[in-house]
């Protein structure tokens, strides 16, 4: 199986916030943004593994700044680390006011996708090889984030999360 680089899965999605996308305050609804993020992340994961993928989990998302009606939304996504059948995708979201000519950060998030075979069973994905220092930082952190999300999802015992525990407990 080919080894992939983070840039191989790089995905950029651009959307325009229209009236039907907003809440009563004229800001983009969180649910609509998470829907777009899910699609951008799924495309990045599928670029990495060249197979159909499903969303396994979404880490916490904090909305730092509202995105206004009429502004443009930019969603950047790429795979940070591949495990056996799952991949972590990092997303960065900005709003842009084209009239005022300024761009502002909205939020960041991590989504996890699993590749499925024709029988809809999890299938192996290519390994990911970090290239830049930033790739390496995200790659290293992905192991601890995975342990935390598996514990929260009831799929791992806290005692088995060695790398996560090492952050808090010095032997
Ligand atoms: C995600 C799913 C495929 C996992 O299947 P499963 O039978 O539990 O399989 P496994 O326990 O063998 O786990 C498979 C992989 O999923 C990962 N996984 C399972 N639950 C997870 C969670 N809550 N968060 C992150 N990863 C998870 C496992 O770590 C494993 O990854 P690895 O092979 O890289 O180690 C299955 O739960 C599913 O189909 N969920 C519904 C997906 C869906 O409908 N999403 C929304 C619409 S796209």
TrEMBL record:
Keywords: Hydrolase. GO terms for molecular function: long-chain fatty acyl-CoA hydrolase activity. Residues 7-119 form the HotDog ACOT-type domain. GO terms for biological process: acyl-CoA metabolic process. One of its GO terms (cellular component) is cytoplasm. SUPFAM superfamilies: Thioesterase/thiol ester dehydrase-isomerase (SSF54637). Signal peptide: none annotated. Belongs to the acyl coenzyme A hydrolase family. This is Acyl-CoA hydrolase. It comes from Cnuella takakiae.
């Amino acid at each position: 199986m080919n080894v992939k680089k983070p840039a191989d899965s790089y995905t950029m999605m651009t959307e325009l916030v229209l009236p039907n996308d907003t809440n009563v305050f004229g800001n983009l609804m969180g649910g609509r943004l998470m829907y777009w993020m899910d699609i951008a992340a799924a495309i990045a994961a599928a670029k990495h593994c060249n197979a159909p993928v499903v969303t396994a989990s979404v880490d916490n998302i904090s909305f730092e700044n509202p995105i206004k009606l009429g502004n443009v939304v930019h969603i950047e996504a790429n795979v940070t680390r591949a495990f056996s059948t799952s991949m972590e995708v990092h997303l960065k979201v900005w709003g842009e006011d084209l009239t005022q000519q300024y761009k502002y950060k909205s939020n960041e998030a991590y989504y996890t996708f699993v590749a499925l075979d024709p029988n809809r069973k999890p299938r192996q994905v290519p390994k990911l090889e970090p290239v830049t220092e930033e790739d390496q930082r995200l790659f290293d952190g992905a192991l601890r984030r995975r342990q935390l999300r598996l514990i929260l999802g009831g799929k791992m015992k806290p005692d088995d999360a060695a790398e996560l525990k090492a952050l808090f407990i010095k032997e």
